[in-house]
Design brief:
single chain, 4-stranded antiparallel sheet, 8 strands, 14% strand, alpha+beta
């Protein structure tokens, strides 16, 4: 007797398998589609950046152009962008213009060196800084050296943000123009120091957004000196005014052999710090007070 296969039973058994394979196929197709779209998006961004420099890919409509035509088009586009950069910086300089009543002559060599470097500044954020530089320099010639301009031109936006963080945490002693990053103090050994465990008390600046790698970057850029510095021994009982992270403090050493420990900004770093508006860093200022409290009498100078 011939037995017919139960087609409905076989179909029911195959359904989960077919469904799984179909699902896997759809998922794989979706993944391939997403990868293709992602690749096309990346390619579009790459082409867009190069097109801003006057360079078109071979797949573009300009592929039939001669080399001379391509070079001419590239040079014209770059010249236009450089002109726009200078116009933007001029606008920022006019917005920030200072009027101190003086009419000192600007150095022509400085001006044309400035123009040559400024035309290569494409970022709006950096264009604002360059506009401020020119406004300050026209009001007070000699404020910014060509060395400082050369360094500023090399700064990326990430470098600028790290430097901004350092400036916000910086301190200045009254009567001095160079900022410092105060870390704490060092107490030189004496017969009484054996009864005091706080011989060397320093802050970790990484807790306030300025990690050690950031400090190394600032050193490599020539914005701060390459090693920690100790101040001279501070006289006992004589108050010194400091502007620390937006707060004014009077520091008075309690005992002999006390020195402050800090990183010092270079001349270039000090010049560039003038461009930035400092924001108060209350948490850092509070921690600095606590770090110095064992060795100093501290008064707020409101």
């Amino acid at each position: 007797m011939k037995i017919e296969p139960n087609s409905s039973l076989i179909t029911n058994q195959l359904k989960p398998i077919l469904s799984q394979k179909t699902g896997e196929g759809v998922s794989e197709a979706n993944t391939q589609s997403e990868n293709r779209i992602s690749k096309q998006s990346s390619q579009k961004r790459i082409v867009n950046w190069f097109s801003q420099a006057g360079v078109q890919g071979e797949s573009r409509s300009f592929k039939t152009s001669t080399s001379n035509e391509k070079i001419k088009r590239k040079n014209e586009l770059l010249a236009q962008r450089k002109l726009i950069n200078l116009e933007n910086i001029l606008g920022r300089a006019l917005d920030f213009c200072l009027d101190d009543g003086k009419e000192e002559e600007l150095d022509p060599d400085w001006f044309f060196s400035f123009v040559k470097m400024a035309e290569e500044i494409f970022s709006p954020t950096m264009q604002e800084l360059w506009g401020k530089i020119f406004a300050v320099e026209t009001a007070r010639p000699g404020s910014f050296s060509l060395k400082t301009l050369g360094l500023l031109r090399q700064l990326t936006q990430k470098d600028a943000q790290i430097f901004r963080n350092a400036v916000n945490l910086s301190s200045k002693r009254k009567g001095e123009s160079t900022p410092k990053l105060l870390l704490g103090y060092y107490q030189k050994k004496s017969i009484w120091s054996f009864f005091n465990s706080n011989k060397d008390h320093r802050l970790n600046l990484a807790e306030f957004g300025l990690g050690y790698t950031d400090i190394l970057s600032l050193m490599d850029l020539g914005l701060i000196h390459h090693s920690e510095i100790e101040s001279g021994e501070l006289p006992i009982g004589i108050s010194v005014e400091w502007r620390c992270a937006g707060q004014t403090l009077d520091l008075c050493a309690k005992g002999s052999g006390t020195t402050l420990v800090y990183y010092k900004f270079t001349t270039t770093g000090a010049e560039l710090s003038k461009l930035l508006t400092r924001k108060q860093q209350a948490i850092y200022a509070k921690s600095l007070r606590e770090a110095l409290d064992n060795a100093f009498n501290i008064l707020d100078n409101i």
